Amino acid sequence: MAIAKASKAMRFFFFNTAVFILIGIWLTGFDKVHWFLYIVPGFFLFAAAVGICPGLIITQKIFGKD
Q: Mean pLDDT across the stretch 15-38?
């Protein structure tokens, strides 16, 4: 089974989205935001750094590869 690798454009999108979410959390206040909101930027930063996107892997398992 081949691991779904994110392209450079997708990695850049993941990084930018994670940064904007974290800026929103910072502006709201770290103590006022629920811990669950940190999961999405965490996954996005992981995908941007490593290039392995768990969302792509799950989507390919559900819908198959194109």
A: 95
Looking at residue 53, what is its pLDDT? 84
Instruction: Give the whole-angstrom CA distance, residue 4 versus residue 65.
Output: 10
Check: pTM over 0.90? Answer yes or no. Answer: no
What is the average per-residue pLDDT within 25-53?
Answer: 93
Closest C-alpha among 28, 32, 56, 60 to residue 43: 56
CA 59-60-61 angle, to 5 degrees, is 90
8 A C-beta contact, residue 16 and residue 28: no
10 Å CB burial of residue 38 (0-12, 13-18, 19+) is middle
> Which residues fall within 8 angstroms of residue 21, CB to CB, at 6 or more apart?
37, 40, 41, 44
